[in-house]
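Memo to structure team: turn this sequence into structure tokens by end of day. - J.P.
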Amino acid sequence: MSSFLGNLWSSVFTPGPTPALVVATNASFAALQLVLFALLLLTYSIHFVVLSLLCAGLWLAINWFVNELQAAKEKEKEAKQIRVLRKEMENGDGESSGTETEAIESRGKSEHPHGRSDTDIPTEARDGALRKRRSLGSTSGDISTDSEWDKVEAEGELDR
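Reply from structure team:
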């Protein structure tokens, strides 16, 4: 028990959720729930039900946050390992100054700098022939609303 209290005291000054702090937090919330339940039985007051629900919500939120922090730490460790492996691979290929242009040139001409290849681009765009998009409106190409009203008026005169 004294070792747990020592770990708890040191975890207060350690950044992040430590196991001792998480256990102490869960024990505190469980004790609070028991006290609120006992008070509910003694007084039959709805206030203790509301306080118990608030306590349960906070307890769940704290545990969710601790789990998210632990997942983020694991992802950061994985990312750090990947960065170390990439550095080792770059240093193993020869001398590299670490500039982006050298990395792009070393990939080859058929590969796009963002990981796409030339086959992802349509043939017309690769050959330099670009097509003009058709508008969804009229086929005449007039965009102004005045010409649309002229067409409506002309149709109305034809109907008479």
